Automatic annotation (TrEMBL):
<feature type="transmembrane region" description="Helical">
    <location>
        <begin position="30"/>
        <end position="51"/>
    </location>
</feature>
<keyword id="KW-0472">Membrane</keyword>
<dbReference type="GO" id="GO:0005886">
    <property type="term" value="C:plasma membrane"/>
</dbReference>
<dbReference type="InterPro" id="IPR023271">
    <property type="entry name" value="Aquaporin-like"/>
</dbReference>
<keyword id="KW-0812">Transmembrane</keyword>
<keyword id="KW-1133">Transmembrane helix</keyword>
<feature type="transmembrane region" description="Helical">
    <location>
        <begin position="105"/>
        <end position="129"/>
    </location>
</feature>
<feature type="transmembrane region" description="Helical">
    <location>
        <begin position="241"/>
        <end position="259"/>
    </location>
</feature>
<dbReference type="Pfam" id="PF01226">
    <property type="entry name" value="Form_Nir_trans"/>
</dbReference>
<dbReference type="GO" id="GO:0015499">
    <property type="term" value="F:formate transmembrane transporter activity"/>
</dbReference>
<protein>
    <submittedName>
        <fullName>Formate-nitrate transporter protein</fullName>
    </submittedName>
</protein>
<feature type="transmembrane region" description="Helical">
    <location>
        <begin position="57"/>
        <end position="84"/>
    </location>
</feature>
<dbReference type="InterPro" id="IPR000292">
    <property type="entry name" value="For/NO2_transpt"/>
</dbReference>
<comment type="similarity">
    <text>Belongs to the FNT transporter (TC 1.A.16) family.</text>
</comment>
């Protein structure tokens, strides 16, 4: 699979973070829009498989097809830039400042959200024949997911909020490993294989992904889910985003950077 050594692909991670900071605003938003839209479609794909087969594992095994498509096209997810762009600042790349990192995060957030909402509207029409018939089984499943992953956490109060945060951390640990997977090989098949594994893990274990939720919950609201916009924002999106930030930076970005770029000198044994 034309595997690259860690010192090589971690440098590519830093270079990628720098390039995203310098990318034009239009390109940043367009690429983020397409990433949000493709990931949303992959969620529908996985949920449809789960509903039609009754096998959640099969849905998780096939969900990464969307992630692989969007990263092969060099589109950007918020979870990926959470991990990559701070590395360029940490590496003291010229012109990379905290305000520019935050601006990039904001633009990618807007693009991902717009893409996810677009597919949410399209799929709500698709599930109901233009709102002329009752919601089909896949749509009902998505609506109930929205209820369980907002009100279900709300029932536990602060403990539920912290659980969301932790699941957001674990999610972007795995998703960021998928982003890195796109850099560990110079062949398309090698990239796909390396991306597939951690994305399958995150999806099957039900960890919380901020961009996936930008699609699931608005669609659930459109289809009549029994929760509110406020429930979604406070009892899912906010702690999920914070967890995604912490997990991506600390569990993937900093660990790889600290041991493969800022390596510690070997101590000589006398």
């Amino acid at each position: 699979m034309s595997y690259l050594e860690p010192a090589e692909f971690v440098k590519k991670m830093v270079d990628s973070g720098e390039s995203k900071i310098y990318m034009g605003r239009r390109d940043t938003i367009v690429r983020a829009y397409m990433a949000g839209a493709i990931l949303a479609l992959a969620v529908v794909f996985a949920v449809t498989i789960t509903v039609n087969t009754g096998n959640a594992l099969l849905g998780a095994v096939l969900f990464p097809v969307g992630f692989c498509m969007l990263y092969l096209m060099k589109f950007d997810l918020l979870t990926g830039v959470f991990m990559l762009t701070p590395l360029a600042w940490l590496d003291k790349r010229p012109g990379v400042t905290i305000p520019r990192v935050l601006e990039n995060w904001g633009l990618v957030f807007i693009g991902n959200l717009a893409g996810a909402l677009t597919v949410a509207v399209i799929m709500s029409i698709n599930f109901t024949y233009g709102f002329s018939v009752p919601v089909n089984e896949v749509g009902q499943t998505i609506a109930h997911v929205g209820e369980g992953r907002t009100l279900g956490y709300k029932e536990h109060g602060f403990g539920g909020w912290m659980t969301l945060f932790i699941r957001g951390c674990l999610c972007n640990w795995m998703v960021s490993m998928g982003v890195v997977g796109a850099m560990v090989s110079t062949s398309a098949t090698g990239k796909i294989a390396a991306m597939w594994m951690p994305i399958m893990v995150f999806f099957y274990l039900g960890f919380e992904h901020s961009v996936v939720n930008m699609f699931l919950f608005p669609l659930g609201l459109i289809l009549g889910g029994g929760f509110t916009l406020g429930d979604y924002i406070f009892w899912n999106e906010i702690p999920t985003v914070l967890g995604n930030i912490v997990g991506g930076i600390s569990l993937t970005g900093l660990t790889l950077y600290s041991t493969h770029v800022r390596t510690q000198a070997r101590r000589e044994i006398v």
